[in-house]
Amino acid sequence: QVQLVESGGGLVQAGASLRLSCAASGRTASIYFMGWFRQAPGKEREFVARINWSLGSTDMTDSVKGRFTISRDNAKNSLYLQMNNLKPEDTAVYYCAARSYSSPSFNYWGQGTQVTVSS
């Protein structure tokens, strides 16, 4: 099992920055990818970004490219999402997730952290 705990959400104005953090514990050696997802009110959860835990290669959804950066610190078992130039449409609950080598999809989830961007 892998446990994930997010932090760093909050209420900011459009154009501001926030940095989300996710601390992983448990069987972290089993992690293949870690990522961020978000769910806005009345919408389905959507993929934001992911990172290959060992290689560090990244993928991001088009709507955040150039504004968000995903990174990790393997020594601290931590995942980060640096969010710059935030827009009201970025408002959502952001979830940290992990995918183990044995799983075809993300199979561990954090509790979520709220990000609210006012215009």
Task: Annotate the secondary structure layout.
Blueprint: E1 2-7, E2 10-13, E3 18-26, E4 31-39, E5 46-52, E6 58-60, E7 68-73, E8 78-83, E9 92-100, E10 108-109, E11 113-118
Parallel strand pairs: 2-11
Antiparallel strand pairs: 1-3, 3-8, 4-5, 4-9, 5-6, 7-8, 9-10, 9-11
TL;DR?
The protein is mainly beta. The protein is 0% helix and 56% strand.
How far apart are the termini?
40 Å
Q: How many strands, what sense, and barrel or not for the largest sheet?
A: 7 strands, mixed
Report the sheet-strand fraction. over 45%
User: What's the pLDDT, averaged over the residues?
Assistant: 97
Helicity range: under 10%
Characterize the overall form: globular
The count of strands amounts to 11
Instruction: Please identify the structural class as seen in this structure.
Output: mainly beta
Count the DSSP helices. 0
Give a structural overview.
The structure is a single chain. This protein is mainly β and 119 residues long. The chain is built from no helices and eleven strands. It has strands spanning 2-7, 10-13, 18-26, 31-39, 46-52, 58-60, 68-73, 78-83, 92-100, 108-109, 113-118. Strands 2, 4, 5, 6, 9, 10 and 11 form a seven-stranded mixed β-sheet that branches. Strands 1-3-8-7 form a four-stranded antiparallel β-sheet, with no helix packed on it. A hairpin with a 4-residue loop joins strand 7 and strand 8 (78-83). The chain is globular and about 40 Å long. The termini are far apart. The mean pLDDT is 97.
Q: What are the defining features of this structure?
A:
single chain; 119 residues; mainly beta; 11 strands; 0% helix; 56% strand; globular
